[in-house]
Amino acid sequence: MSSFAPVAVTRHSAEDTAGADLNAEPGSLTGEMTGLGTTIKTTPSPATFHMDPEKAKKYLENIEKFRILVIGRNAGKMTILQRVCNSVDEPDVFDGDGNKIDNVVVQGTLGCGYHKIKDELVFKSNPGFVFHDSPGFKAGSAEQFEEMKRFVMGHAVARTLKKCIHAIWYCIPMTDYHRTVTAAEQKFFNECDTGHVPVVVLLTRADALNFAAFEELLDEELEVEEAEERVTERESLLLEKWQTHIKQMLDKCKFPPKMYLPLTKMYNESADCTTLIQCTASALNEEGLQRLLLSTQQSSIGLCIEYAVNWVVGGMIKRVIERGERYDIKVFESLLLSWFPKHDIVVGDFR
């Protein structure tokens, strides 16, 4: 199986990608393409705007959960949510009014699409996340699409902060890599304005390209042993090719996604979701939401440290060195620890 890591692509304009060619030489598709795809930058992406710390604190006090809407064809969506929440169990499901729905009724429905988009999926292992699932819809299904569109647009600007969705994961399965961008995807990204809520396209089950790569090598009349030696490299080229194709198609839409991220090996219970969380954090528009996401996730304490150092330590250096301002150490410690509210961190750990 492939060993390449998940990667992310930041959004460019349609003009930037209009000339992309599926037959282009690997690495020439964008300036960020390297080796096994596109590398995600380690420096935290700057948020569009920042609140005053006190206002941000009051704002976030009204947001108890980080809400993510998962859209698209089912291709391991439940598995991804389980990995993010470090769980192997099914989530508890609540209706729009907060009433728990019998698990017997909803078991397996994330794959079958029997539940409603308003239903809330919550894992006991990490109740800080609330997931909403929109089953895959066909382009001709006006009723399904309009229901999803009303939910997205309504919850993107919900008056009740506790009901706002903060990010959208749109899943495109690479098991169907020959039909990655269907009429349904084009309809969504042309008609559904998510406002300030970022959409991250997840290329799920990218491991499926391993078999396709092996078949290609055998079709080229390579011996099995040689094909096995070269399959990882060919798999990487296929991922780069189809990822660029998807980006080229969707970036032409009226409301294109903000980032793209292939996911591999999610079938492993120990799969690392750090890059998925980092990609989502980079796509967010507000520093407070980045902090909420990172303090909710349990994949990597390192991400909390990285963002805390970038925002808090970076801000302190700028004020003290560049502006000559005095900096209160207690304020500094408070701001630093605000990135770790759900982790057992004490002030002494940073001294």
TrEMBL record:
Domain of life: Eukaryota
Stretch list, region Disordered: 1-50
Record SUPFAM superfamilies: P-loop containing nucleoside triphosphate hydrolases
Compositional bias of kind Polar residues: 36-46
Stated name of the protein: G domain-containing protein
Source organism per UniProt: Pisolithus tinctorius Marx 270
